[in-house]
Amino acid sequence: MAVPKLEQLSKSVVQGPSLATGAIPTRDWMDIPVVFKEGNYAYPAKKDKVEYLNSQKGLHFPNARVWSPEDDDWKLPENWKEIILSGLKERLEKFRSLKIFMDCCVRCGACADKCHFFLGTGDPKNMPVLRAELLRSVYRNDFTLAGKIMGKMAGAREMTVGVLKEWFMYSYQCTECRRCSVFCPYGIDTAEVTMMLRELLHLVGIGINWILEPASNSNRTGNHMGLQPHTFKDNVDFLADDVENLTGIKINHTFNRKGAEVLFITPSADVFAEPGLYTAMGYLLMFEAIGLDYTWSTYASEGGNFGLFTNNETMKKLNAKMYAEAKRLGVKYIIGGECGHMWRVLHQYMDTMNGPADFLEVPVSPITGTVFNNAASTKMIHISEFTADLIKHGKLKLDKSRNSHVKATYHDSCNPARAMGLMDEPRFILDHVVDWVEMPENTIREQTFCCGSGTGLNTDEIMELRMRSGLPRANAVKYVQEKKGVNMLSCVCAIDRATLTSLMNYWNPDVRVCGVSELVGNALVIDGETRGDLEDGLRTML
Amino acid sequence: MKYAFSFLAVITLIVIAGLGSQVQGMQYLFGVALPYLAILVFAGGFIYRVVQWAKSPVPFSIQTTCGQAASLDFIKQSRLECPNTTAEVVARMILEIFTFRSLFRNTKSEIHDGPKITYESSKWLWVFSLMFHYSFLLIILRHMRLFLNPAPFWMDWIEFGDGIFQFGAPNVYITDATILIGLVYLFGRRITNRHVRYISLINDFFPLVLIFGIAVTGILMRYFLRTDIDIVTIKRLAVGLVTFSPVIGTKIGAIFYIHLFLVSTLLVYFPFSKLMHLGGVFLSPTRNMKNDCRAVRHINPWNDPEIKPHSYAGYEDDFREFMVEAGIPVDKELPAEKG
Q1: pTM
Q2: Distance (Å) from the alpha carbon of B150 to chain A's nearest alpha carbon
């Protein structure tokens, strides 16, 4: 479906009758059914992808079939309701967060206008509180005394196909960005609710292709794009050649090398697509500059983990490759590239799911001797932590003027900001490599706005939704573009690099998007280099 | 309609207690039996709910980090917003529970032509919520005078502070006014704030109206219907209740029984409602966990060791030829070519 013209959408988000702009729907939300039409849903997962995942040990993706959200009949298994309710019961027993979040909400509404999907669409069911009520209403009906006795009066409702369809609609209009959880007085995290909804939907064979295809690719080939080992290597080699052509520095990178000190893992998008490519070139250049003894892996060639957007079993299985590969290669520790959701998995889930990594050592920077005690157990550090430490110790020679074509701002990616607390390391780096400014305070750090397309929603068939949900972010960029002349939006997330590019092209066409490591690469001064004046840094066309 | 129903429900409760307590012999029901039952249900229900929560594990470390984490020594950690020690978590929880820290962050966003989205600080909810909750707490503490004999020393401080304005006879308590103001605000915004209006359930209006009823009947007793009330008889009943030897005096008016019946209703309603946020806020994993999950391994009791990655050996089997050709090291060489 075509994306509406800029003027049209600009008017629509302000004047369209929606709860965000002032119109209160006359009907109770429970009485408003969802309507699927081309453009408002992401395409269902292909049957063979679901079957492949279901065939993998430890994974459970039953009821693969061909179906369409637009059809009345979703061809659900006969006992779908029983599957959903017993699935919910099981999850209530497994996750305290779910129980607490179902029970404690007082509907104070503090979260309502914090959600980028709500701000962009004005759809009441995109208020985090109502998104949670979609599940909570069913929870009340079947799992609480008040709901069983009082029924609808207590906000309970029976699980129906209509409710299931609603779950599908709105659990895929949430990017699990956790902004609402910052403002909730009880810390209720809609990401937890969305995760549970998506897990439950997978039990009855409902999922989207943009998530399950990368997940199955990642399982087999090691990365989302499905790049086979030789192709992955070719891509990195190609980038190394580019770096050499631009700077005269020969890159000595290796793949699957046993005995390397460090295993480096980054989202495969960095070696595959613009503008991530330039970020990857930044990594290559910096590692070369300091002579790091490291290796890439083609087997663990994906930092990202679409299992996080699917269910915890898939997340665990995909993530397990990292430690398995680190062990096989006998490295000391792992450095992870710039990625948002990848770092949520690494920081909050990896050690729990696939640790303890007792075959690795506490990360120590071979250049500065800094011991990364904050990663003493996971043994995996973020490239920004590693780089900031190098800069602090004066181990990188940087020439800020090499980024004089750039006036940057910095987008905190949701997960590093709200699920990790990585905020000042990238800022420290930026201070040393580029002239940059902050966006308004309600849109950065823990209050940062999502790109609008995270959690596997960066698919083209829902482009209007993405442009709407990305509006709060785009709007903040526009502010610094107009007031401060910003022309580059930097970030530490591979999904951002792709999705913010579309978002900027739509809302703020003169702002480009880059990774922080690209700006580092631009500014690096390396002995023996023969680089001329690269007017567009690593992006300069020769 | 939802709020109308809540009023209707509370009015019904008032009528039941008002009339019921005047029937000979029913004073015992409203003054002794129901309060005992209510306390039992409240205590039992509250404990049950907390135990039910605690029974489910916290499989993953899912703290919401609202500030810079502890990392490199030259990066300043935000210790209260992103704690990584127990003491810091306790401090964060104290801020959350006693000062409603997260609500303090509240902003109001608006979309203007352009489009242009603005965010402005919006602290009214925070102000009135604090006002309501602290008033309620102080009122409950003040009521302890009825149950404790002799009254503890801190009682005088609370009553002195609460009545510091020293006007009216009897001396007007500030909290009697502020709890009503808080309630009216919380109720009013459910009607006037379009987001909240659309999401509000009977479950949201009923407790507000019920507590409003309790506050109003209490105020009526203290300031306006004093002739109906003999405080000595009430204290004797209250002390009797806590010492399990309740005595129903004759000089207690209906207004007291209405007040007590509404309180009993609140106690019974409490454990089965959203009011359990009182307990839940302590257990919320996004707030009460340390952000140290890369430094210390968090254990998931149901972690399934059988979920293993697609193996490297399987991967190499799939792609060995390509790998060898591309010069990528392999664990197992290609079979020697025949012939």
Answers
A1: 0.96
A2: 37
